[in-house]
Amino acid sequence: MRLLPLALFLSLVAPLVAQLVIPGRTPTGMKVEPLWAAGAPGAQGSADEDVPTLTHFPAKRGKINTAIVVCPGGGYRNLAVDHEGYQVAAWLNSVGISAFVLKYRLGPKYHHPAQMYDVQRAIRTVRSRAAEFGVSPDRIGVWGFSAGGHLASTAATHIARAQPEAADPIDRVSSRPSFAVLTYPVISFTAEEFVHKGSRTNLLGATPKPDEVRLMSNELQVSKQTPPTFLVHTSEDTGVPPENSVLFYLALRKAGVPAEMHIYEKGPHGFGLGSLDAALSSWPARLLDWLRGRGMM
Q1: What angle do CA 117, 200, 218 make, to 5 degrees?
Q2: Which of 59, 296, 287 minimizes the C-alpha distance to 177?
Q3: Which of 124, 132, 68, 128 is nearest to 101 (CA)?
Q4: Mean pLDDT calculated for residue range 109-120
Q5: pLDDT tens-digit series, residues 9-47
Q6: Domain residue extents for the chain
Q7: Are 40 and 102 in contact (CB under 8 A)?
Q8: Hey, what's the torsion of the CAs at 293, 18, 93, 141, to 10 degrees?
Q9: In sequence order, what DSSP letters do the residues of the chain get, joined into one string?
Q10: Which of 9, 21, 105, 164 could cross-link to 110 by cystine, CB 3.0-4.6 Å?
């Protein structure tokens, strides 16, 4: 009998195990922490929607010492925290990677830069407490889906520098992720035929200024400081057309940033780990190959 390679086996089986997470409920035993103990900058209250948090899923096997901040999608209005958050974290744990699921602030109550502050703070929090979390400060990535992919690409292109003299130790480290994973990401706010208008409106408001639109059109913000990036999309995605990933990939190429992109012919928007589709279920194994090649496994 021919045995499946370990990486392929994990890519197929682990997502099914991850689906045992009870929908809408934080998994038992996982620690949820606010990103700012005294309240987030620009907070408009203290209700749940005003408090960005991180939920820590520590890896229990191996000594990979890699961590990923996970940004669920939802058009900057909701969070698909189950199949683009908790299930992803469970899969990462199954391959030895620690995960931190980010609950970031949403529109229409919150607009840019609140969401950017949240993801930057999340990466800085993990990096500043790397020893506590059992991870390496230079192996902290960000992974986003759909609008969460836009937020992850924002973290990769709008980098808050370390402030060595800051009173808050979290601000003493950089927010630059070590790598980025973008799954059917929203990217462009200027290429009108490819824009996910709901995400743009929820992030920037109904009548954003042109300079804001350009600033948050992240394919225009790629630089040599942007970290290595892995992208995956499908040609059939009508919610967020694959040109979003293509534009970002081309910008990475132009800037000389290492990148890998996979565009599958079939598949809808929002496929997550792709565990219910024979072809798409192979893509997490490609991600593992890429991470291994970059020394993150």
Answers
A1: 65
A2: 296
A3: 68
A4: 98
A5: 444 444 434 434 444 456 766 789 999 999 999 999 999
A6: 6-36+49-293
A7: no
A8: 60
A9: -PPPPHHHHHHHHHHHHHTTSPTTSPPTT-EEEES-TT--TT---SSGGG--EEEEE---SS----EEEEE--STTTS--TIIIIIHHHHHHHHTT-EEEEEE---TTT--TTHHHHHHHHHHHHHHHTHHHHT--TT-EEEEEETHHHHHHHHHHHS-PPP-TT-SSGGGGS----S-EEEES----SS-GGG--HHHHHHHH-SS--HHHHHHT-GGGS--TTSPPEEEEEETT-SSS-THHHHHHHHHHHHHT--EEEEEESS--TT-TT-TTSTTGGGHHHHHHHHHHHTT--
A10: 105
The whole-angstrom separation of Cα 169 and Cα 135 is: 17
Cα–Cα distance measured from residue 92 to residue 88, given in angstroms and rounded to the nearest whole number: 6
Q: Taking the mean position of all CA atoms in its chain, how far away is CA 31?
A: 19
Euclidean distance between the first and final Cα of the chain, in Å? 28
Confidence of residue 224 (pLDDT cuts 50, 70, 90): very high
User: How far is the C-alpha of 26 from the C-alpha of 53, rounded, in Å?
Assistant: 12
CA-based radius of gyration for the chain: 18
Best CA proximity match to 94, nearest among 16, 33, 149:
16
- Which residue reads 């759909």 in tokens? 146
- Contact status, residue 212 vs residue 112, Cβ threshold 8 Å: yes
pLDDT at 128: 98
Could you tell me which CATH number the domain at 6-36+49-293 has?
A: 3.40.50.1820
Instruction: Tell me the C-alpha distance between 55 and 52, whole Å.
Output: 10
pLDDT in tens, 135-166: 999 999 999 999 999 999 999 999 999 999 99
Angle in degrees, 0-180, between the axes of helices 6-18 and 87-94, rounded to the nearest 10: 150
